[in-house]
Amino acid sequence: MRHALTARHTRLVLLLLGAVLLGACAGTPSKPLPAARNVDLDRYLGKWYVIANIPYFAERGKLASYVIYRQRPDGRLDDLYFYKKSFKDTTYSEWKGVAWLPDPRDPARWKVRFIWPFTSDYTILDVGPGPAYDYALIGLPSRELLWIFARTPTLDAHTYAMLLDKARALGFPVDQVKKIPQTPAEAGQPGFQ
């Protein structure tokens, strides 16, 4: 019993620390981060596979990860993050967060919270074509964290390179970006976490 309580407290402390660090990363950089202009919230909601990111301790080592964004009755959004710790896992672990639009007229800029009271900025930098968008590029205004999402577990090399080029032009350290293994065959491969 005591061991389970300790493990639970350790996870809570790590999540709180992650939220603090994400909040610290949300500081205002010298050059404003431009958001995508063509974001339609209804098209953006749904399931996204995490194709790549700049690794940080809260997501480092997570496998087959994806997020789901959905509208809530209170007007905010569910921000649900699913992952596996091992490809031997038969079920996903889940973190539940909430997101909202500080300005409903700007659906590309969000506030995200996984642990109260720590909030982080979330900027949609680019979205792909298609009725539900094919890909998305997301970053923090500090340019310390970046994510590449896709509606499928893979993204073609040309689109991936184009998104990295766009992130580089915006001042993100793309040399730190690593792909997330979505299948066992990708685990341990060059360029993957």
Description:
The protein has 193 residues and is of the alpha+beta class. It has one domain (2-27, 34-185): Calycin beta-barrel core domain (Lipocalin, Beta Barrel), CATH 2.40.128. Helix content is 21%, strand content 32%. It has three helices and nine strands, in the order ααββββββββαβ. It has helices at residues 2-25, 41-44, 157-169, and strands at residues 46-53, 63-71, 77-84, 93-100, 109-115, 118-127, 135-139, 146-150, 178-179. A hairpin with an 8-residue loop joins strand 3 and strand 4 (93-100).
Briefly characterize the structure.
The chain is α+β, with helices and mostly antiparallel strands.
Largest pleated sheet: 8 strands, antiparallel, barrel
**What is the H-and-E element order?**
HHEEEEEEEEHE
Average per-residue pLDDT, rounded, comes to: 88
- Gross morphology is globular
In total, the number of strands is: 9
DSSP helix fraction: 10-25%
Q: Layout of helices and strands, plus pairs?
A:
Blueprint: H1 2-25, H2 41-44, E1 46-53, E2 63-71, E3 77-84, E4 93-100, E5 109-115, E6 118-127, E7 135-139, E8 146-150, H3 157-169, E9 178-179
Antiparallel strand pairs: 1-2, 1-8, 1-9, 2-3, 3-4, 4-5, 5-6, 6-7, 7-8
